[in-house]
């Protein structure tokens, strides 16, 4: 447990420092954030044709209300936490790769729900928007990362036990 | 109960507990802010000679300093002012809700002992992140003349910049998970029994 925590904290600090680099922000985080705005608009448009995106902004053409997806709202930090937790846990590299990919997908899927829900909450009530934006969704995204990691932890352990049983039977 | 069922029950209970507790926390945030901001303000005045005092107003905590700054006036003259950074407790305090929700979700043995202890740990984390937020405003957001008055190195400035962003995006919301996992490791270990068998025996078994 102590070894896991120490590796995890070290990885978390290193990955977050890399995330803060200007070159990483410009080359990866900003294009990713733009893509999130585009995906959000693409998901909403079949139901609400008034919505469009430009850059990192998601906007309603009828009400003029828009949300700008800023650092902390693009799911990158939650993904960094999950990736650090998956890499720190003793498992095969294949299992870690699956955990990283599935984890990022799980976090970004919920993050799209966050962006779309905040877009509509903001048009309804700005005080509720601030509450949901700054506090509630921050906690829920991290809870999503935790549950995803627990599911992966259980899956990788079962996989390891199954392989051990096969090896034992074959011997 | 199977491990998969345990994870889903934990996730759902924690989710609903967060949804219920967060509005309640927001409602009483001004009362919860007072002790956190007071300990943070007291700590700053003990640690830094330029921190002269602090005041609280609801969820807002203001640090008073002896760091002077010249404020341009409409008539072209300059007035002397003092840097007084402000923080909003809520930006640093909502992790407490997640901590309580996680404990309700996993319901560890001796919860009545572990939860107050974990609450104290998160209280201290909140104090620390508020101190870093004040320091960030003094060292990184104020003008260069203010930074020189503090006597800190540029390395300290860089460290505070990193810690502020780390706290803002990760510590506040992730520290509760780390603290919960430390206090209820048997719950996590039970989901990976083969790993648990390799490690030394856990101090107590999972509650469910």
How does this model look, in words?
The complex is a heterodimer of chains A (171) and B (208). By secondary structure, chain A is mainly α. Chain A is built from five helices and three strands. Chain A has helices spanning 2-20, 22-44, 76-88, 93-124, 126-170; strands spanning 51-54, 57-60, 66-68. Chain A starts with a helix and ends with a helix. In chain B, the strands form two sheets. A three-stranded antiparallel β-sheet of chain B has the order 1-2-5. Chain B has a two-stranded antiparallel sheet with strand order 3-4. Chain B is elongated. Chain A binds chain B through residues 1, 5, 12-13, 16-17, 20, 71-72, 77, 80-81, 89-90, 131, 134-136, 138-143, 146-147, 150-151, 153-154, 156-157, 160-161, 164, and chain B through 3-4, 7, 10-11, 14-15, 18-19, 22-23, 26, 90-91, 94-95, 97-98, 101-102, 162, 165-166, 168-170, 172-174, 177-178, 182, 185, 188-189, 191-195, 199.
How would you briefly describe this protein structure?
The complex is a heterodimer of chains A (171) and B (208). Chain A is mainly alpha-helical and 171 residues long. Chain A has helices spanning 2-20, 22-44, 76-88, 93-124, 126-170; strands at 51-54, 57-60, 66-68.
